[in-house]
Amino acid sequence: MLAIISAGIAPGLALLSYFYLRDKYETEPVSMVIRAFIFGVLLVFPIMFLQYVIELEQVFSNPAVHIFFTYGFLEEFFKWFILFYTIYQHVQFSEHYDGIVYSVAVAMGFATFENILYLFANGIEHAFGRAMLPVSSHALFGVVMGYYLGKSKFSEKKDRPKWLFLSLFIPFLLHGTYDLILYLYHHWLFIILPFMVFLWWFGLRKARKANVIEQHADY
């Protein structure tokens, strides 16, 4: 049991630490990051319940639409919702890159607990694949969400709705695409690997841009 818990926790904490330490200017209080992580953990059961109900009631007749919205939209919406109402207005969200730190923390809380449940159900032999694909993808969706939340927080008032919309829409689009690849293609590995390379490129580019913006910011 200890091995499964360790294998389930390790990738999420490693990814969170990586993006936390990429903050070049003012690192966030560890207590706030842990708080965001716990919020992510607490999202797992309500999201799983809603997904179960949607599947049971067959809300979406089209399988692709079902996958896109039941998993991509639902998971990203709840992460976005908790960030917006618990972190976005907080005084500690004081720099552009902070959005990435807190968003990744929520995403890693969710992905870590989900990962532990999966490994208990299916075995520790899946740990490496889970770390490379679902856990990493959640972290990168979080980077993108946090980048646009930061843009919204520190933009002119008239531009904020646009960035807020993108902070939900783009992670949802990426997450939905990821799930559709796994669902639609029998040889999904040959498609998901290039997609993951793109995700890493896109996420790291957003992290670099957030730090560059911070370097020239005058709040």
Report strand %.
Answer: under 5%
Order of helices and strands: HHHHHHH
Rounded mean pLDDT is 92
Distance between the termini: 48 Å
Instruction: Sum up the overall morphology in one term.
Output: globular
Please give the number of β-strands.
Answer: 0
DSSP helix count? 7
From the alpha carbons, calculate the radius of gyration and give it in angstroms: 17 Å
Organism: Metabacillus lacus
Transmembrane segments: 6-21, 33-54, 66-88, 100-121, 127-149, 161-178, 184-204
EC number: 3.4.-.-
Membrane topology: Multi-pass membrane protein
Label this structure with key terms.
219 residues; mainly alpha; 7 helices; 80% helix
What's the layout of helices and strands?
Elements: H1 2-21, H2 30-57, H3 63-86, H4 98-122, H5 127-153, H6 160-184, H7 189-215
Describe this protein's structure.
- The chain has seven helices and no strands.
- α2 runs antiparallel to α3 and α6 packs antiparallel against α7.
Quick rundown:
The chain crosses the membrane at residues 6-21, 33-54, 66-88, 100-121, 127-149, 161-178, 184-204. The chain is mostly helical.
